[in-house]
Amino acid sequence: MNWTDVAGQDRAVRILRSALVRDQAHHAYLLAGPAGVGKELLARVFALAANCEAEPPEARPCGVCSHCKAIARGNFPDVMWLMPQAEMVARGLISRADLEAAPSKEIRVDEVRALAKRLSFAALRGRRKVAIVTPAEAINERAQNTLLKTLEEPPPATTFLLLSANPDALLPTIRSRCARVQLGPVPEEVDPEHRPFLEAAERALAAADERDALDVAEQHGERDDALRAALVFQAWTRDLLAAQSGGQLEHRELQALAAEIGQRVRPVALLGQAQVCSEVIEALEQNGNGRLQLERLFLRTRELRNG
Ligand SMILES: [Zn+2]
User: Fold this and answer.
1) Ligand 1 geometric centre to CA of 12 (Å)
2) Which domain does 48 fall in, by range?
3) pTM value > 0.85
4) How far apart are CA 293 and CA 229, in angstroms?
5) What is the CA(75)–ligand 1 centre distance, in A?
6) 61 Cα–ligand 1 center, Å
7) What confidence tens digit (pLDDT) does each residue in 76-130 have?
8) Residues 164, 56: one domain?
9) CA distance 205 to 270
């Protein structure tokens, strides 16, 4: 099992792999994408590479060291899985007969607490504790609030991987604490023809007053155009986050601009920007007003970056 096994998700692989090679993994990633796209495989390879003993880091996972073998067997104390009981029964990890009640389809607060407790201890064998939550949208709301406390004060050398086909079902506060890694066939490529739009948007975001931002919103105010613009800006936001965590951009012609923005904008502002993108896209998909939604996108992004 290796990075190359995660077919068709080069971009997601690159982000996670380079974060580990540089020893700069975030404390939480949201692996978002439709069912069957490779989220779980990617999470497994991440857990292997994060704890593999091979040198140099580029050689991880090697698949043959004792850590790799133990993780592949599901027998490594620093790689933890959290899933609903019903899912564990379906996978044969627990027996239906062991449960007093019908297996829960939700991840519950006591289960999140137990995970948080295990994570509060130092890694037992590995370098990095990896907690894989699947599907993350199964965490019920109360348990999400419990998880949020752990994400706000993450234990050292720990990475959460939240896997979700429906990330909008998660609390915005959870999403904003995670670096989002998008998998799957989504319109996320920064097409060369989008370059003038992104350059104009970035100029407007850096301008002294709001007028330029309002102008850009008006130019793309027709709803379908606004939705395309928001999707392109969302992909760009992912590129900015990738650049900041040492990943590579899909399109090198914007590398210099991304590097410059990555240096002056804080990661938390970019995560907030990603969140605003999601909200605006959702509103536009539900027939929101194009110009108003783009104004919201740009004005909120300006606030986040200047705040
Ligand atoms: Zn290994």
Assistant:
1) 21
2) 3-182
3) no
4) 11
5) 14
6) 5
7) 999 999 999 999 998 888 888 888 889 999 999 999 999 999 999 988 899 999 9
8) yes
9) 13
